[in-house]
Amino acid sequence: MVESNVVPVASVVVRRSAYEAVGPAFDERFPRMYDYEMWFRLAARFPVGHIPSWDAEWRKHGDQSTYKGRLRGLEQLLFLEHAQEIVRHELPHFEIPERRWRMIRSRWSISAALDALERSEDRRAFEFFGQAIREHPIHIADPRIAVGLLALLSGRPGRRLLGALRLGARRRGL
User: What is the pTM of this model?
Assistant: First the structure.
């Protein structure tokens, strides 16, 4: 769960006492990742089970917050800091290697860079690309960096194409 939301919202069953223990409200700092943050708090505090069967269907459509709130790289980075605090506080004996945290932070920094490019914030995009490479140098080979740089060189048409490519990738679960 540190890397991505693996909880299928349509079929979650949670005891009321668990919600009450972690705080029943969504954290407003995460307007696009509100459920993910809640599942993370619950999973850090209580046993979680999985039933390996189909019990619900999920329909994807353009009005979902997943698709409307497209620019969420900064939110992911903020969530990662929050997740580290939850792990330290709720699971003090559970160790996630720093190398793993850095790899995730690098990946999400690339997303933040691409968000900045879509908003025409070139300087901010370079800062995030640099942060990504410092955190996990192997990500210099991440194709999203090459696509981002091509979008930057192509100007407004490149940014529009970048936005369309990213939306398509999200819709396909990539």
Answer: 0.82
Q: With contact defined as beta carbons under 8 Å apart, do 93 and 112 qualify? A: no
Each residue's pLDDT tens digit in the chain (174 positions)? Answer: 877 777 766 778 889 999 999 987 888 888 888 888 998 999 999 998 877 777 777 666 666 655 555 678 899 999 999 999 999 999 989 888 999 999 999 999 999 999 999 888 999 999 999 999 999 999 999 999 999 989 988 888 988 888 888 888 777 766
Q: In Å, how far are 33, 147, 166 from 111, measured between CA atoms?
A: 15, 12, 10
Which residues are CB-contacts of 66 (< 8 A; sequence separation ≥ 6)? 32, 60, 170
d(CA 157, CA 151): 8
**Residue 135 CB coordination number (10 Å):** 19
